[in-house]
């Protein structure tokens, strides 16, 4: 019996060591998974914003940074290297692209010492407290100020040499934004190529970007493509709206289907680079957007179109859907722009590209509630859908009938004797029905239209005892009710934690069992 016990103890010890090894492997694997997830998080595509300053009553730098934090904006592009803004961004997690204005190219491109001074004054002085991650050298130089084009690459190389001297060249990437016009014959994308007269500059520039792992920066505006090709390019295609297969653009050479103009523009850039044997440089969209107001010659510069474009753009990027040619690559995008620059010269649209007014109030209300926290504060909360003024009763009645019928809006409150029956007229009843449908659909893009008779407002239309579905009163009740249920959003995330934790707990249970079992036969 003693020999059996000794033999068993030896066997138990072996198994115990195997169990400990297994536990160690599980914990090690958990650590590796965490590290991989952290890396994936760092590599996730992002949407940033351009911050222009031709704004009357612009927020102070401190107020600006507080606003960026409130809106969960993690990437910004400055059109210069404003020292006050860079100081205010210190010790935040906001990543910053600083810029060399076009009027400084001559000095920097002509002197390496001037380039070194610029890096020292505008980058080294703030980094790493301020997370400067990229430098944009000039803006659309090849098409806007072609006389400065010969100085562009020398300026970039001089600034890069200064980054190397400061040991920042691996942390900060440097490139230059281009207009879409440098690409000729952009559709179909497979036939696109760079303007060959620019090749003496573009070819060495792309070789530099390839060598340094920097992106090709492009300003891409489907709005201008649509305006210049009305009747050829569908508006829905420009706005990322869903298309029937018959309306999709098809590249006859690759047979790839394009449902958005922006994807086609990005792929035209990739094809243009491939024609020059450059295949390892990614496209960074430094500007893209849609104006919310225009003059009589810009009828498509509307709040609804701007809202639709930018909301869908954000979703498109954060969905990591890539492009038809490169579904594995999702270009990062900077929206043009954060604020309406009301001091800009005509046309009217030039002053109306912003998501917000200079006082930080929204120009329109983005529908990004399904895309994380980015730009979600004060933009998707407490909005309502109501009937527009000046619409004839017959049209409103038809929209009301649809909302309460096929639309399945909850119209019980506008029945006789209920709280929202009075005032008893079509417009007020339609407003309630429209808002009921709008809230039911999650305030999604297109859910407040009703063939052009409805509009979104931030003013609560509730009155007296009539409380509209989107009202804060309803929201607070809903929140209180949901807090008393077990199916809260926080609970929904628990399985992720339980899955990891349960594996370790199971191992610990086995470990304890072995210890007890071994102790009985020592």
Written overview of the protein:
The chain has 522 residues and is an alpha/beta fold. The protein is 43% helix and 11% strand. The protein has 17 helices and 15 strands. Strands 5-4-3-2-1-13-12-9-6 form a 9-stranded parallel beta sheet. A hairpin with a 6-residue loop joins strand 10 (249-250) and strand 11 (257-258). It is globular and about 80 Å long. The N and C termini lie close together (12 Å).
Describe, in short, the structure shown.
This protein is of the alpha/beta class. The protein has 17 helices and 15 strands. It has a 9-stranded parallel β-sheet with strand order 5-4-3-2-1-13-12-9-6.
List the helices and strands and how they pair.
Elements (H helix, E strand, L loop, with lengths): L1 H42 L3 E5 L9 H10 L4 E4 L4 H6 L6 E6 L4 H6 L1 H13 L6 E7 L3 H4 L4 H17 L7 E3 L1 E3 L3 E2 L8 E2 L4 H14 L3 E4 L2 H7 L6 H4 L10 E2 L6 E2 L2 H14 L8 E6 L14 H16 L14 E3 L48 E4 L5 H12 L21 H15 L13 E4 L14 H12 L5 H4 L1 H27 L2
Parallel strand pairs: 1-2, 1-13, 2-3, 3-4, 4-5, 6-9, 9-12, 12-13
Antiparallel strand pairs: 7-8, 10-11, 14-15
- Main sheet overview: 9 strands, parallel
Poorly predicted runs: 1-13, 25-42, 474-522
> Radius of gyration, Cα only, in angstroms?
29 Å
Q: Which descriptor suits the 3D outline?
A: globular
The percent range for strand residues is 5-15%
Oligomer: single chain
- What is the overall number of helices? 17
- The total count of strands amounts to 15
Helix percent band: 40-55%
> Looking across the biggest beta sheet, what order are the strands in?
5-4-3-2-1-13-12-9-6
- Secondary structure class reads alpha/beta
Give the overall average pLDDT.
82
Note the gap between the termini.
Answer: 12 Å
